[in-house]
Amino acid sequence: MRAGADRSSSLGSPGSDRPNGLRRSRSSRGNRANRSSRGATASARLVRGTVYAGAAISMGFLLFIIGYILVMGIPHIRPELFEWHYNSTNVSLMPALINTLLMVLIALALATPFGLFAAIYLVEYTKRGNRLVKLIRLMAETLAGIPSIVYGLFGLLLFVTALGWGLSLMAGACTLAIMVLPVIMRTSEEALKAVPDSYREGSFGLGAGRLRTVFKVIVPSAMPGILAGVILGIGRAVGETAALIYTAGTVAEVPEGIFDSTRTLAVHMYVLASEGLHLNEAYATAVILLLLVIIINTSSTALARRMTKG
Amino acid sequence: MNRFKETSARILFMGAACVCILAVALICLFLLVNGVPAIAEIGVLEFLSGTTWRPANGLYGIAPMIIGSLYVTAGALIVGVPLGLLCAIYLARFASQRILRFMRPAMELLAGIPSVVYGFFGLMVIIPLIRGVFGVQGMSILAASLLLGIMILPTIITVSYTSIMAVPESYYEGGLALGANHERCVFKLLVPAAASGIMAGIILGLGRAVGETMAVIMVIGNQPRIPAGILEGARTLTGNIVLEMGYAADLHRGALIGTAVVLFVFILLINILFYILSRKVRT
Fold it and tell me: What range does the domain containing B21 cover?
């Protein structure tokens, strides 16, 4: 089952259940091939070398980025960074951190019911080959592919200007909610699909209606997968910048109401980096951001795993 | 009573499912209503093929940005596709279980790193590197291509890996039985069989690269002119929007929204391509 995955991020499980014996037999066969023809060996070695080099370079790049940020950032995490109010001497990231949590909380509170209900509709209420279902899937895929700056512009036009909310926490959260909707919907759909049909039959057999079956039997047993999707959505929302600059603005204070302008951690990081005055603090902020993403990802993977085991 | 509850729940769920359709419709509507009049006022041809972007003088040609986006995306694919594909092949058919157990969560983590963090990394590491090696200012198409190439690696790796793993084991075994060695089996049988899935991964990566905003504007220099070489600065469609939206008004603002319309059309085309290819994989 592919819980914990938007359409790209699933290194599926088939790798793990490949039998070990096959691997061993393959290597012994490789040796025999080596002995039989010299030319083939040389080209095979070349190919193997290229594959190893390509893999090493790409993994190296990616691990280097994380390592570099951690090494440069951790020494600069100081207590002043966590003071309640931001000013240009302490460059505190605390307001941004709180804003991030508020923003993500509101966005998810908006997106989760819609995403989950949509998934329920697609899995439990429709037949295969339904036209509407196809359209909904297509639209969800389209939403997932729209660049975040286009969301940002849309949020600016609809929430900030047309509805007159101004640059605000609420406008940012609504924009984010639309962005994470397809993520939550798709993962919930996968989780609901993974519930065995015998559960449904059992529930119907005991005389429960469809609604009761959905909420008392199916959703509870798909819960880990649904949560994994919600957490993936959190991950996407936490890292978002382009969609928020023109919807939530860049005021580095904890807002007094939901219609005040705010700055999330990722936006804070962008402002620090582009001003270029507080690079050390930018490194430290990057570390905090990375840690958040790591925590979010680990818990999502753990939940997805519990789903497949349980 | 029960009947009523069931029906209203059904309608509620269906309504929630239609939110996706509503959202796409609203996004299209708002972009078109705000962008198309401006494009019409500037003139479609003038807007798309004009080579000068100087809002102060009323010149709104986004050709430099379209070309910038194309260059950067092509560069990202040149960097990202060979590396990502080799890495996926390695993970699928060469790596030991120990490395796999470590790499799989690592890839998911890397896909989740915020783009500002990548951008900051590019600003602090890649740009000084280019400045040192080539003796130029550093903010350039090359820097953006390298950075985006790295950023789309996780996408390409995960999708290609999944599609290579989905090729039936019998292909590989058949190859071995005919006397081909491991490398030959992988490259002549498994990779061609997974080709459409791999293409889908590349297209997904392409979409990411075209739509990426923050990381790119941090390293590309953002000069709105047609770049003469890869060591020159340029500006992408996404960058154009995010850099000027803060202070734009009237026709300028409309032209920026028009830029978003062009970007949106590009993304839709890429999405359609992805959709067709991933359907091919399924059948």
Answer: 2-48
